[in-house]
Amino acid sequence: MFVEKRLYFPILLFIYLLCCSSRFAISQPLQDYNFTLSNSIAGLAGISSFWNNIPSLDVNSTDSFFGLVTPIHQRRNAGSLFLCGFYCNYNVTECLLGILLYHIKHNKENDVINKPQLVWSANRNHPVKFNATLQLGHDGNLVLTDSDGTLVWSTNTTGKSVSGLNLTEMGNLVLFDKRKRTIWQSFDHPTDCLLPGQNLVSGRKLIASVSATNHSQGLLALSVLNGSWAAYTDTVPPQYYYYSSPFADSSYYSFDGQSFTALHYPTNSTTQFMKIGPDGHLKVYQWSVVDWNEVSDILSPYVENCGYPMVCGSYSICTNNGQCTCPPQENFFRPFSERKPDLGCSQLTSIYCNSSQYHSFVELKNTTYFSFYIDQELNSSRLWLGQTKLEDCKRACLSNCSCKAAVFEYGWNWTGRENCLLLNEVFSLTDSEEGRGKTVFLKVQNTSEAQTRSLIIPLPGGKKSRPFKVIIGSTLAAFFGIILSIATCFVIFRKRTHESRNSADIWDLAPILPGILTRFSYNELKIITDDFSRKLGEGGFGCVYEGTLRNGTKIAVKNLDGVGQVKESFLTEVKAVGGIHHINLVKLIGFCAEKSHRLLIYEYMVNGSLDRWITHENQENGLTWNTRQRIISDIAKGLAYLHEDCSHKIIHLDIKPQNILLDQYFNAKISDFGLSKLIEKDKSKVVTRMRGTRGYLAPEWLSSVITEKVDVYAFGIVLLEILCGRKNLDWSQADEEDVHLLSVFR
C-alpha cells in the first residue's frame, strides 16, 4: 500500500498548484460592504468598508524614509489633526496602517501634511505594500491584508455586532455597535506613544521602536507592574532601569497605582503626545509654531544618562564624562564601529556551552550595571544572590550557560559576603564611584587552556574525585574486614551520586545548550503557570500549560513526564531548536532541568494547533483559501530551513497538524521536535527506529533507512488535509475504505 500511495503525489502537487494559481476563482468573491449610519454620529468612515493602499498625498516628514500617505479618515481637535491611513516609504514597499498626528502647512498650490508623528500602528512588525487592503467585513472584523493576500492584522471582533468605525477627537480609532458602545479601540493596544487621556494599565505596555526609521518593536518597554510603573528591557527576564513609587504624579501624567494616564499640560489647546524612544527616554513632545519640541523628559530626574540600557550599546562602558568605551581587554572585545562608539561592543569569540571548560571572566573593577539595585527588589532569587561570597557568585555564573556576566558588590565592612547579580543579557555598563566596591565579571570564551587558567575560577572538584574516594574507602573497608561499613559506604555513595546527578543536570546539558536560553527553576514555573492549572493540550510525552511571565508575556510550558524516553525527548528537542531561529519554527525560550523535572518553555501561539482549524465546525469562521495557501507556504519554508539551511540537517519525523501552531495572524510555525533526528550536512540518510504518527509515515520507514523525504511525505498528507478540510484518518466514515484521506483519489 505504501508503494501505491507514491503514485498519488503527482496528483497532490497538481491540486496544490491549481489552488495557488486559481485561488480567487475557487473561493467566494468578497462582496462590498456598504453601510449607512446615523448622520448624528460625526467622523464615521463614509459608506465604504473597503480601502486600498494607493498613496495620494505627499508629506513633509521629519522621517526621511516615510513620505507618502493613503488617507482613510481624518479628525480635527483644536490645533491637532489626526489622520488614520497608510503611512508609506517613497517606494511604497513598506507601509504602516496607523494614526498620524500632524499640522497643516499652507502652500500656494496646496496644503501639505507637515511633520506627521506616527502615534499608533496596527502592523509595526509587518509592513505591507502597495495595494494592500483594509476591510470592515460583514462579520464585524476589521482586517488588514497585504497585496499578495496575506492576512497581516485584524481586530478579532468577529461576531461582536460591529456597526461602524470612528476616529475620535482624541485620536482613538474605535469600532462600535448600534448603541454606540465601544467594541474595540486603538487606545487599548498602544505601540510606543500615549495621547492625552490615554491610559496604560496592567497587561499593556509601550514598546519602543528599533530606531527613528525602523518602527518595529525594539528592546525597551514601559508598563504598569505591582502598583508601580516601570521601564525595562523587554527580555526574558526583564532588566529594569526605572521603577516608580506608588501614586506618582507629574504635570504630564497621573498614576493611581493601577492606571498610568497621559495628561495635557498646560492647556488642551496644545498639541502633545508622550513617547518612549529607542534610547529608552520617556519624553513629551509639543507642537510649537513650526516644529515639534521636547517639553519634558519624564525619567531624567530619576535616571542618569548612563543609567539607560542602550546608552552605549551591549558590553560597552558609559564613563563618568558620558563617553562610551569597550572593555580594555582587546583580545576579547572590539567596538562595532570606531566612528560610533555608542553602538556597543562585540565579543571576538562567541560563548559556546559545548566548550565550557574554556569559559573565564574579564574583571572590570569599579564598574556596575544599570539594573543592579532595582533587580535586587524585583528579580527572582536565581538571578539575585544576596549575602554570598565572591567565589560562589562566579561559580553560579560559570555553572549557568545562560549567564553572560556577574555583578558583585562588596560590603562597606569588606567581609567578603555581599550581593551578586547574574545577567542573561549584557547591555550598557557604567563606571562606579571608586571605592564603592562594585565589580563586573564578563564571561568570555578562551581559545586555549593556558589562557583559561589565567582567568578562570575553577568549578568545585569534589564530584570528580568522589569515585576515587569511594575506591580508597572500599579498599580500607575490605582491609579491615568491616562488611557493614562497606555496605554503608556503598549505600551512601549511591545516594550521593543520584543527588549529584539531579543537582548537576546543567553539566549534562552544558555541551548542547545555547547561551540564549533561560534556565527556570521548577518553583518559578509553578508560579508562572498558576501551579500548572491552565492546560493548553496534551501529547505523548506530557502536557502543555499556559503561563505568564512577570512582564506580561504569555508562554507555553511543556511538562515532560516519564523516565528514559522523556530525557531523550528533552535532549533531542533542546539540541534541535535551542540554537536555531526561523520565523516558521516555534521559538524555544528556556528550559527547566531540576532533579526529575524536565520542562521546555516556548513562545505562546494564540490560535493553537492547525488540526483545530482544518475541520472547523463553523466554516464561515474557518480558514480562507488565502490563509490556507499561506499556512502551506509557511510549513514548506520551515521544513526547507530545517533540511537545507541549518548547520546540521534536522529531520523532524513527526509532521502533522497537531505539531503546526498558528499565531494571532495565522502564521504557521513547526513545533515539537522530540522525535527529530540531527544528521551531518554531508550525509543523505540515517538509520533509526520507526517513529512518528500513524497516517503520516512514509514508505521509507519499512527499511529504517530514512531521509528528509519522510518529512516531505508527511507534509504532503498535511497539505491534502488543509485543501480537503478533513482529517487524514476519519473513522466516522461509513465505508471503511473511505477512512484514509488518500482514498478520495482512487
UniProtKB/TrEMBL annotation:
Residues 66-188 form the Bulb-type lectin domain. Its main location: membrane. It is found in: Membrane. Residues 530-746 form the Protein kinase domain. One of its GO terms (molecular function) is protein serine/threonine kinase activity. InterPro entries: Bulb-type_lectin_dom (IPR001480), Bulb-type_lectin_dom_sf (IPR036426), G-type_lectin_kinases/EP1-like (IPR051343), Kinase-like_dom_sf (IPR011009), Pan_app (IPR003609), Prot_kinase_dom (IPR000719), Protein_kinase_ATP_BS (IPR017441), Ser/Thr_kinase_AS (IPR008271). Pfam families: B_lectin (PF01453), PAN_2 (PF08276), Pkinase (PF00069). Its EC number is 2.7.11.1. Belongs to the protein kinase superfamily. Ser/Thr protein kinase family. This is Receptor-like serine/threonine-protein kinase. The lineage of its organism: Eukaryota, Viridiplantae, Streptophyta, Embryophyta, Tracheophyta.
